[in-house]
Design a protein that fits this description.
This protein is of the alpha/beta class and about 350 residues long. Helices cover about 35% and strands about 20% of the residues.
């Protein structure tokens, strides 16, 4: 639709006059975007949406007259459009944010502490970046049936103890990834091999993300802890602001976390995870690249393939943003491209066949 060629129209919906003014200042300072309307609550926002037809909405979660989540659910059912949520760094805020992503929000940004100047430039850069990404994203209509459908092709038990303990699944994702990861993990049986997951997400949200997945999946899902043994039937989520790596202790796979510098501007970085998998699992690994902006993980995924792993990318039609899978495909790292709903069962089918692929040219 050529969004990049024209000015991105943004609407700001927030009950804080200070936040509305701050976001307007940040967005209007950019040459390719402009705030076309501000609203203190969803009831006013509804009328402004009709009048201005914005390309992207920034939406606060806690507001008077109508909760942000209620408004988002109605919006995504009746008039789907890219929404970036503004979230508080609290447990309640993180749980509400994950619900917003489930309802169809493209991404979220943690609100800064407004009593300090430090971090404000970083907040502004994040706002601008995520508005641009949202304007190019693929938005899905919320039907209320997504959760039920996600488990529609649950894979049968593997029934192969050696495959469960020797094999490993590594997943990387960014924008749109929280729901894509859920759709993969919810289809895995209790004896699936250990799963390592790097999702670009700040500290304060990954614990709630892991707990939410754990409540929905047949496998156990937790936030990864340094040094723990990787067990079958378990998925380990990279902690926010820490790299996640695969390590070995004798015959066992173990988790390593690191505070090393960001890679590709990210910590956790998919590149770091996939590089460690290439080194320590090789042909015993299956790599999965899901929706996300940018190229994080593409080069290391090609390294995984050279080491003998089998790699799957999410297809463009089901991605919120096709950037990361597209880059992995361009790097020659991918063996198979699949819709998100088929990836979990395909991974288990490969494992049931005990596929061991030699390095491919």
């Amino acid at each position: 639709m050529g969004v990049s060629m024209k000015e991105i129209k943004v609407m700001v919906v927030d009950d804080s006059a200070l936040i509305r003014a701050l976001l307007t200042h940040i967005i209007d300072a950019e040459s390719d975007m402009k705030v076309v309307g501000v609203a203190p609550h969803p009831l006013i926002a509804r009328e402004l949406i009709k009048a201005h037809n914005p390309d992207v909405i920034t939406l606060d979660i806690e507001m008077p007259k109508m909760d942000g989540l209620d408004f988002l659910e109605r919006l995504m059912r009746l008039r789907p459009m890219p929404v970036v949520m503004l979230s508080t760094l609290t447990e309640r805020g993180s749980q509400a944010t994950l619900r917003a992503l489930e309802l169809g929000a493209v991404d979220f940004i943690a609100k800064p502490k407004l009593d300090i100047r430090q971090g404000m430039d970083e907040f502004g850069a994040e706002i601008v970046s995520k508005v641009r990404i949202a304007a190019r994203s693929r938005v899905r209509r919320w039907s209320g049936e997504t959760r039920a459908k996600a488990g529609g092709s649950i894979a049968p038990m593997l029934g192969n103890r050696r495959a469960s303990t020797e094999k490993l699944i590594a997943i990387g994702a960014s924008t749109g990834g929280t729901e894509a990861i859920r759709e993969v993990l919810i289809n895995l049986p209790p004896d699936a091999p250990g799963v390592l997951v790097t999702q670009h997400m700040p500290a304060g949200f990954t614990l709630s993300f892991a707990q939410r997945l754990d409540s929905l999946c047949r496998i156990s899902v937790k936030q990864a802890e340094h040094g723990e043994r990787i067990l079958p039937g378990h998925a380990y989520i990279a902690p926010g602001d820490s790299h996640l790596l695969l390590a070995r202790s004798g015959a066992d796979y173990t988790v390593a976390t690191s505070q090393a510098d960001p890679v590709n501007r990210h910590r956790p970085s998919v590149e770091v995870l996939f590089h460690s998998v290439a080194q320590n699992a090789g042909p015993n690994a299956i790599g999965v690249m899901l929706t996300g902006m940018g190229k994080d993980g593409a080069m290391a995924m090609a390294e995984m393939k050279r080491s003998g792993s089998y790699n799957i990318a999410q297809d463009e039609a089901t991605c919120v943003v096709f950037g990361m899978p597209k880059e992995a495909i361009a790097a020659g790292a991918i063996d198979e491209i699949l819709p998100i709903g088929e990836i979990g069962s395909r991974v288990m089918s490969l494992l049931a066949q005990d596929v061991r692929l030699a390095p491919r040219i």
